[in-house]
């Protein structure tokens, strides 16, 4: 255990963090996290399923006829400051009346200012034509970023106007309300949407939803149940100095940092719905491009329900007196559909061991993960990974989890054909319709350590296993190819100028 003062212990208690948590985290800093061992990339027909049009129609029918409760779960925490990083850099150096030829992002924003969905809102804050005529480019961009105008540099992405329509513009949040009506609508016309938000932005989300709810309910004939949660303080992780001693702020208090999106496993674990779609706040498109996304979402949901129903049936049959032919069928399903093989010492001839293995393997949360062809976008990729017992499983792997000094591992990474756009649909209840404790299916050895700084001093920060990486490591995982047009993230402001956002 580390030496903690009375003041330290009071701080831990207030945040809901135990001394054991801190001790474990500091040990993780000292020993680091092991790299994953990649066996090969998951590729089409070798870990990634390709759906033909007949499959899509079949799974959509299963989804449309199902009675499961549905939730659209949208990670939406954090400000959009990274989206505007280059523009903040611009206004630090620029002067009105001059062009900054060194900042291409700023130049593109100015040149195409009328193509942004927020143009009309901006024009109410500053006369855009007048600013352009006087070359007041710095003032123009300040009115986008700061409290002088739209204050977008301090808002979350969900509250930023993304898309223009005739006579109106829509925020990313409103696009999720629209999507929800299209594929998360239940038999009673209710649409459940859950946003994970930062405390400082919750009021903004709530106000916008309450303002726009009647508009979208009338348009789509639905009733929205919109809920919110925040990243729990107890999921923050301690920071350490370069000697792995607790890092202290200027007032002597321990420094804790958010544990990354893996902290949202706690939020997901509290949901009671059956089928949960997970999709980031910034991955939305205008209505003209939504049909492909909607069809694939429904198809992924139908595949999930098909597998869930098969698993429930098979688990009920897995008794010691099961017929060998039936046992072989269930084993074939586990290998072919869930991509999980038993260790070599467990064979059909050893019926009790095989029954036990199949029960343990089948009785897990399920996730269907859409995968798009790799076109150079950042993000985790689908791989076959070697497990501790020597077996292989499908995992979404980030580059930080790979030993890039190992040429073999680097070559496997280079051969990857697809990546993860955070397009998930999950089933989180067991065959008795009881919620799984999702914390039991997380691989705690898949966290990240990164170097940061605070007040000019270097520190090390710890991220929890990522929500769709290590946090779901022990789920039953199925990868399915989805079209690239279903992936349209907005990482920088000029991504909004891409054709798919116009």
In short:
By secondary structure, this protein is an alpha/beta fold.
Q: Which SSEs are present, and which pair or pack?
A:
Blueprint: H1 6-15, H2 19-31, E1 38-41, E2 43-44, E3 47-49, H3 53-65, E4 70-75, H4 85-93, H5 104-111, H6 119-125, H7 128-133, H8 137-145, E5 161-165, E6 168-171, H9 172-183, E7 190-197, H10 202-220, E8 223-230, E9 237-238, E10 256-257, H11 264-269, E11 275-279, H12 290-317, H13 324-336, H14 351-362, E12 366-373, E13 381-386, E14 392-397, H15 407-414, E15 418-419, E16 423-427, E17 448-454, E18 457-463, E19 476-481
Parallel strand pairs: 2-3, 3-19, 4-7, 4-11, 7-8, 12-19
Antiparallel strand pairs: 1-13, 5-6, 9-10, 11-16, 12-15, 12-16, 13-14, 17-18
Describe the structure.
By secondary structure, this protein is of the alpha/beta class. It folds into 2 domains: 338 residues, Spore Coat Polysaccharide Biosynthesis Protein SpsA, Chain A (Alpha-Beta Complex), CATH 3.90.550; 74 residues, no CATH class. The chain is 34% helix and 19% strand. The protein contains 15 helices and 19 strands. The mean pLDDT is 94.
Primary descriptors:
502 residues; alpha/beta; Spore Coat Polysaccharide Biosynthesis Protein SpsA, Chain A; 10-stranded mixed sheet; 3-stranded antiparallel sheet; 15 helices
Q: In one word, what is the shape?
A: globular
Q: What structural category arises from helix and sheet content?
A: alpha/beta
Query: CATH topology of the largest domain, anyone?
Result: Spore Coat Polysaccharide Biosynthesis Protein SpsA, Chain A
Question: What's the structural domain tally?
Answer: 2
Mean pLDDT: 94
What is the CATH C level class of the largest domain, in words? Alpha Beta
What's the helix count?
15
Question: Helical proportion?
Answer: 25-40%
Distance between termini? Answer: 56 Å
């Amino acid at each position: 255990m580390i030496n903690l003062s009375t003041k330290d212990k009071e701080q831990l208690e207030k945040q809901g963090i135990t001394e054991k948590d801190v001790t474990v985290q500091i040990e993780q800093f000292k020993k680091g996290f092991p790299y994953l061992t990649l066996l090969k990339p998951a590729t089409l027909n070798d870990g990634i399923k390709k759906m033909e049009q007949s499959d899509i129609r079949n799974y959509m029918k299963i989804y449309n006829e199902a009675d499961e409760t549905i939730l659209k779960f949208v990670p939406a925490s954090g400000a959009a400051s990274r989206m505007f990083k280059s523009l903040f850099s611009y206004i630090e150096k620029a002067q009105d009346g001059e062009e900054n030829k060194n900042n291409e992002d700023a130049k593109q924003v100015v040149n195409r200012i009328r193509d942004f969905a927020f143009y009309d809102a901006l024009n109410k804050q500053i006369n855009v034509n007048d600013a352009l005529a006087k070359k007041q480019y710095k003032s123009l961009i300040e009115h986008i970023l700061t409290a002088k105008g739209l204050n977008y540099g301090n808002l979350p992405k969900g509250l930023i106007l993304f898309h223009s329509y005739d006579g109106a513009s829509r925020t990313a949040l409103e696009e999720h309300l629209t999507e929800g009506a299209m594929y998360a609508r239940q038999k009673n016309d209710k649409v459940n949407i859950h946003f994970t938000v930062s405390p400082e932005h919750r009021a903004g989300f709530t106000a916008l939803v309450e303002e726009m709810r009647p508009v979208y309910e009338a348009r789509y004939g639905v009733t929205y149940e919109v809920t919110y949660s925040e990243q729990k303080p107890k999921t923050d992780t301690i920071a350490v100095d370069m000697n792995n001693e607790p890092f202290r702020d200027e007032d002597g208090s321990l420094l804790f940092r958010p544990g990354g999106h893996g902290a949202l496993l706690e939020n997901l674990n509290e949901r009671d719905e059956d089928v949960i779609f997970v999709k980031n706040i910034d991955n939305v498109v205008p209505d003209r491009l939504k049909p492909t996304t909607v069809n694939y979402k429904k198809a992924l949901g139908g595949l999930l329900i098909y597998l869930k129903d098969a698993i429930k049936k098979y688990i009920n049959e897995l008794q010691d007196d099961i017929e060998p032919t039936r046992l072989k069928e269930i084993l074939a399903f586990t290998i072919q559909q869930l991509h999980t093989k038993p260790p070599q010492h467990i064979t059909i001839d050893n019926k009790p061991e095989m029954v036990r293995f199949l029960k343990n393997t089948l009785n897990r949360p399920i996730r269907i993960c859409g995968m798009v062809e790799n076109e150079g976008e950042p993000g985790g990729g689908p791989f076959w990974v070697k497990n501790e017992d020597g077996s292989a499983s499908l995992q979404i792997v980030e580059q930080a989890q790979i030993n890039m000094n190992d040429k073999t591992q680097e070559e496997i990474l280079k051969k990857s054909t697809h990546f993860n756009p955070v397009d998930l649909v999950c089933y989180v209840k067991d065959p008795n319709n009881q919620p799984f404790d999702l914390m039991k299916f997380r691989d705690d050895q898949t966290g990240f350590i990164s170097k940061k700084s605070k007040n000019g001093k270097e520190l090390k920060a710890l991220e929890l296993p990522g929500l769709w990486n290590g946090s779901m490591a022990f789920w039953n995982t199925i990868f399915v190819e989805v079209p690239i047009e279903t992936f349209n993230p907005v990482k920088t402001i000029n991504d909004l100028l891409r054709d798919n956002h116009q």
